[in-house]
Amino acid sequence: MRAAAQIQIKTRGKYNFEKLKQQMTLQSMVVPGIIYLVIFSYIPLAGLVIAFQDFDLYQGVFGSHWVGFKHFIQFFSGDQFFRLMKNTLCISLLKLLFGFPAPIILALLFNEIRQQKTRKAIQTVTYLPHFISWVVVAGMISSMMAVDGGTLNNIALKLGWIDKPVNFLSEPKYFRTILVAANVWKTVGFNAIIFIAAIAGINPELYEAASVDGATRFKQMFVVTLPCIVPQIVIMLIMNVSQILNAGFDDILLLTNNGENSILLEVGDVLDTYVYRYGIKLQRYSYGTAVGLFKSVVSIIMLFVANGISKSLTENSLW
Amino acid sequence: MKVQSKSDIILQAVAYIVLILLSLTIIYPFWNLIVISFNSSSDTMRGGLTFYTREFTFDNYAKVFADKRLLGAFNITVLRTVITTFFSTIFTAIFAYGLSRRKLKFRRAYSKFCTVTMYLNAGLIPAYILMRTLHLVNSFWVFVIPSLFSVWNMIIFRTFFDNLSNGLIEAAKIDGAGEYRIFFSIVLPVSKPVVATLALFTAVNQWNAWFDGAIYITDPKLMPLPTLLRQILNTNAASQLMAQMSSTAAEQLGDKMISTRSLSSATMMVSVIPIAAIYPFVQKYFASGVMLGSIKE
Lengths: 319, 297
What we know:
The structure holds two protein chains of two kinds.
Chain A: H1 2-9, H2 15-22, H3 24-46, E1 53-54, H4 60-63, E2 65-66, H5 70-77, H6 81-99, H7 101-112, H8 116-127, H9 134-144, H10 151-158, H11 172-200, H12 204-212, H13 217-228, H14 230-242, H15 250-255, H16 262-268, H17 271-281, H18 285-314
Antiparallel strand pairs in A: 1-2
Chain B: H1 6-37, H2 41-44, H3 59-66, H4 68-100, H5 107-119, H6 124-133, H7 151-162, H8 166-174, H9 179-190, H10 192-208, H11 211-216, H12 225-245, H13 250-253, H14 261-296
Helix pairs in contact in B: 1-14, 3-14, 4-7, 4-10, 4-12, 7-14, 8-9, 10-14, 12-14
């Protein structure tokens, strides 16, 4: 122990190397992970330079021509830019508007269920969609909405809302509604976990005090529960706002038939699906990277702005 | 116990009603899927199936399991899930344990190095080019190697290890145990809940992954189940669209698999059942696992 203490004191300067050698085993646990990150995270980051090139797969990063901001200019002045931004922001804001409050409301409702067994059972059910692949979810949606006897058409016909079966999945006017509803359906239960846990951590004395003051359970929701989970709400809001250009990828791609349903692209094509279509399918690597880079830069700025606003308003922040 | 006021009773009733309705909305699509998958294909085409089967049959499942391509895809998915989950969990946990040891030199620098990657992501195309450069395209290892290490999981592990009693580790140290032995024989056994949670999350991600199979794999022998499933469903949707708008995509279908709604429902069920069977048992752990992550962030 004393020897260890002495080494502690001597760590500065040339003894650094000694210490490093001493903890070879410990370092061997961490260094492979660091090398892994260099290869799979940092090298791709460096690879973003191809946004400024006419990248050719066979010439490599070092052999390709530099073209400056050509691809960015092409993207910003292209006729798709406006449509893409509109779709991206529109879908994202709809998801935020419905998808963000839903888990909070769900958590508040769970808090009113006193029977533990019922509560557990319902929770188990609500988590389930989170674990199901988007491929299957999209498959279930198209089965439910099928023209030839899907449930939705059956019900709508019976209730007299429509007079002949509608192909809901190929009508642009229904697309965003379906997309957002599917997202809420899939994520609401799982996203509620963090709020449920936060509510479970609230000191019961607060409720007792409020109840002595004559507050009903409904009022306690607003004077006790909600104020106590503000930190979690703010953190989640910051994260969500910074993701504003991530309007979704799997869900949109799968519900638009891998982007092949061109009628739906009008309302459903977002930055990420566009990057995939141009960058990977049409192999315009540099152009796709430029669009992706634009998205990332805006996202990071949004993250800092949202974090800054939250810090000054509520003292809650990510860092 | 206080007598409940009228407003309290109404609130309770509303909570029950909303939650039960939500549960039904979640269960119904699965139920509908089960019904269709057990109904005979030709009868399903008549439409109108909602709550129960009209012509019950195991045929669809028999066909799924007789289909060599689907079976191959199923095996690939099982294999990638088992291999990746095992190695990713071990590799990530060892890293996290190393980082949780206070005496680790460059600890802060390593830690920063990891967090940066959570905020900065190069995106799709640089990753795609990297996989091509590493010759992982059309290789089984493209399912394993890019998922070997997760910074997000690492942080959850580390938070858990940080809270472990130091005395346990120090006692083992005095007994002369090395870091790896301490990790495997002391730390890992007491970390079951977090290991179970993160292994479950990794496994589910692997089981459900379809996009890597779609962009990195062209060899049909290596195609994972969700990717093949998506192909089948796409073809179905395209043919449905065709029936409506006639002809346009007719030639494109050609050699692709065409499947009836009952058959593709059975295929979807095969993809869902393993998850639905396992997850209720691991569920009790994961609430705590998710919380560990959110506290740190």
